[in-house]
């Protein structure tokens, strides 16, 4: 793995005077897939928004560095230009716009080919979808695929994927896994927020968030085992839904 180009140093965030992120440290290299695990409300999406530079999510302390340059106070549009992109947990609505046009907006080069390749990468037929305008007949799962296709076409330096699997059926999870691997092969770093074991397994590294802090980092296997041993029993006691993750051969 090459030297990290994206480094998060000691980042803290408060909302309504409440700490949401506590001294987060993270680094990513080109082509690295890093999984962020954690129960609901542990701060995963807040970290994604902070790294993307979303309004209201500027860290009070610490630094975010891209190629050694401090981008902690750089606006979201500039960060996008620098090659950081975020696939939201709830896909962006682009009603009225043909799907192909939406994907083309951020495509890096040779746009028509990119749109076709991106749609094929998420198993949507270009013939059927490229000219179809987004409207209420587009399902949640289809929207999720289009959002991922748009990110794929961009070939960002860092793709932050916030639960790309939500609303996606079990059979289609292999399409998502393949797409993420393709992105990494094209040298994008991927920060992947997910609860799906199939996606955790293919990552290079993982971190576990709890109450706004990263409490464990290691291999995906070690991290999910840490979760199972330390977090799940507490969730069971609290009567919450256990977050189910089981890696093969573990
Ligand atoms: N804009 C905000 N104002 C106040 N509190 C917020 C805001 N955004 C997030 N929080 C709080 O920060 C905490 C972390 O939320 P966040 O959505 O980042 O967690 P998460 O790990 O992504 O959860 P999930 O898995 O349910 O998506 C929660 O307690 C949430 O209520």
UniProtKB/TrEMBL annotation:
Gene3D superfamilies: P-loop containing nucleotide triphosphate hydrolases. Belongs to the ABC transporter superfamily. Ycf16 family. The keyword Transmembrane does not apply. InterPro entries: AAA+_ATPase (IPR003593), ABC_transporter-like_ATP-bd (IPR003439), ABC_transporter-like_CS (IPR017871), FeS-cluster_ATPase_SufC (IPR010230), P-loop_NTPase (IPR027417). This is ABC transporter ATP-binding protein. Residues 6-236 form the ABC transporter domain. It comes from Bellilinea caldifistulae. GO terms for molecular function: ATP binding; ATP hydrolysis activity. Keywords: ATP-binding, Nucleotide-binding. Pfam families: ABC_tran. The keyword ATP-binding applies. SUPFAM superfamilies: P-loop containing nucleoside triphosphate hydrolases (SSF52540).
